[in-house]
Design brief:
Layout lengths: L14 H46 L2 E2 L7 E2 L3 H7 L2 H34 L4 H12 L2 H11 L6 H8 L14 H26 L3 H9 L4 H12 L1 H16 L3 H6 L11 H11 L3 H25 L9
Antiparallel strand pairs: 1-2
Helix pairs in contact: 1-13, 2-13, 3-7, 3-10, 4-7, 5-7, 7-10, 10-13, 12-13
Length: 315
């Protein structure tokens, strides 16, 4: 029998399997480290300017604190005081009135502007002009409209005089003050809101409109059966942002009316400011802030549920 020759087969080195895996792990850790490095400034800003002040404010809401002495724990005393505070309830009522006017008009106008930009205004210049008021400082906007609506020298009242309307104290009359402040902020923010809605309109497939046109659907049917359902997530985001922003109205009131006349524009944010920095009741102001935080969280949660923000007809 002939001798058989055995050719040795080299064993696969375990290192050929381990090294790529180890290389991938090292690469993954390196990428994660770079990602955390870029996130670190935003994370530090969140911790320093958002999380810590929130936790500190919640703690102070259970104390009696005047900034000059150490906080004294008083439990629920500040919250019980809220129940019997007529100015607090008035500030809630005034703020709610502002929110209803501001959100109702702003959403309607912004949706109309977004549809016009989507259908007609293709020019970037026109879109920039629509966004321009949002880029102006809130203080400048408040001063501008305060002068324009002045009862004696304002151009608005002069124009009303041309058509036979008596001068109106837009910021000095308790009936007109809150609607005026609300409409001033509609003018400032409607371009930004319209831009958000316009971005949502851009994501709607054109084939849907083409199919509706083939079926002979009119503009009203297309709007309610295609545009609105497709915009549901965007509209939910817009409503949450605008409502939260409206509840935090402060600068326009501080510049124009300072809570007057006779508390008719003393919104809740201005009342918090007054309690904290005019009366040095930081504990009580913190309690009001906690209540406002809970209100906004509840409103946002209710909006997300009622508008089914997690559902999209694009899926």
């Amino acid at each position: 029998m002939a001798d058989t020759v055995t050719i040795p087969v080299p064993k696969a080195s375990s290192s050929t399997h381990v090294k790529p895996k180890a290389r991938r792990l090292r690469g993954g850790w390196r990428e994660a480290g770079v990602a955390w490095l870029f996130l670190l400034p935003a994370l530090l800003g969140f911790l320093v300017f958002f999380l810590y002040p929130t936790l500190r404010g919640i703690f102070l809401s259970f104390t009696d604190y005047d900034l000059l002495t150490a906080p004294q724990w008083v439990g629920l005393k500040n919250f019980r005081k809220l129940v019997d505070d007529p100015l607090f309830w008035n500030s809630l009522k005034v703020t709610l009135e502002y929110v209803v006017i501001n959100i109702g008009v702003q959403t309607f106008v912004a949706l109309g502007l977004a549809l016009l930009m989507h259908r007609l205004a293709k020019s970037t210049v026109i879109r920039g002009i629509i966004l321009l008021p949002y880029l102006i400082s809130s203080v400048v906007v408040a001063l501008l409209w305060y002068w324009m609506a002045d009862v004696n020298l304002g151009v608005v009242n002069q124009m009303l005089g041309w058509i036979g309307v008596d001068p109106v104290a837009f910021f000095g009359d308790g009936t007109w003050a809150i609607p005026t402040i609300a409409l001033v902020n509609v003018w400032k923010f409607m371009g930004y809101t319209a831009l958000l809605i316009f971005a949502g309109l851009q994501a709607i497939p054109a084939t849907l409109y083409e199919a509706a046109d083939v079926d002979g659907a009119n503009e009203w049917t297309v709007f309610w059966r295609i545009t609105v359902p497709m915009l549901r997530p965007v509209l939910t985001l817009v409503l949450i942002l605008t409502i939260i922003g409206s509840w935090q109205i402060f600068d326009t009131v501080a510049i124009t009316t300072k809570g007057g006349p006779i508390n008719s524009t003393r919104v809740i944010q201005y009342y918090i400011f007054d309690q904290a920095f005019s009366r040095y009741n930081f504990g009580y102001a913190s309690a009001i802030s906690v209540v406002l935080f809970l209100i906004l969280a509840g409103v946002a949660f209710a909006q997300m549920k009622l508008t089914r923000s997690d559902e999209s007809d694009l899926a």
